[in-house]
Amino acid sequence: MHFFGSRGLAGLVGAAAVIVSVTAAAQEPAGPDDKIKAACLVNFAGFVTWPSGTFAKPDSPIIIAVFGADPFGAALEQAAGTDTINGHPVVIARFSRLQEITPSHVLYVSRSENDRLPQLLRQRGVASALTVGETPQFTHRGGMIRFRMKGEQVQFEINAPAVQRAGLKISSKMLKLAIVVEPAEGPAKP
Q: Which of 102, 104, 159, 165 is the Cys-Cys partner for 139 at CB 3.0 to 4.6 Å?
């Protein structure tokens, strides 16, 4: 079981060999925890291998999307910067309705959408997305990665069976930093 705070994030970033640039954007400021989570969302993409054929071209964008109320504000754009991840530029998208969702590679599911999680996970365009949330039971309800707070540290758990069902592969470096959960084994700890 591994945890990371703002200092531990450097290890996650270094392991992914992804440099996060900071750029200006005109949105609401995010809190310190949300800035860390925004950086993690971008960096998670560097730890994931998508099935062949996911990207039309070697330089097709990686789409990181937020569904529902956005806690990150400009922090997500700042984390994405202008760098690429494995040769792919990063594009940020936001969706407020299920009908708006288009295929994305990393999809953050806001707390505001907790009640619609089962419907969302059946939505076209979500099947091969790395789904990330932070509500209790997120990974036990089919989500792939859940942010959790332990004191002032951000930690995350991974639902490995859900990741495998989507045809995604997560780097062993990222798995070492995570709490791996098996939803069939019982209820999640808050």
A: 159
Domain that holds residue 121: 9-182
**pLDDT one-digit tens code per residue, 132-184:** 999 989 999 999 999 998 888 888 999 999 999 999 999 999 999 899 887 75
Q: Helix 32-44 vs helix 9-16: angle between axes, to the nearest 10 degrees?
A: 20
Q: How confident is the model at residue 22 (pLDDT cuts 50, 70, 90)?
A: very low
CA distance 120 to 10: 32
Residue 99 lies in a domain: yes
Question: Has residue 2 been placed in a domain?
Answer: no
> In CATH, what number is assigned to the domain containing residue 138?
3.40.50.2300
| Lookup: tokens for 183 | 């939803």
- Report the first-to-last Cα separation within the chain, whole angstroms: 15
pLDDT at 10: 40
Give dist(CA 42, CA 81) in Å, integer: 10
Q: Can you give the pLDDT at residue 130?
A: 96
64, 105 Cβ separation under 8 angstroms:
yes
In this structure, is residue 189 part of a structural domain?
no
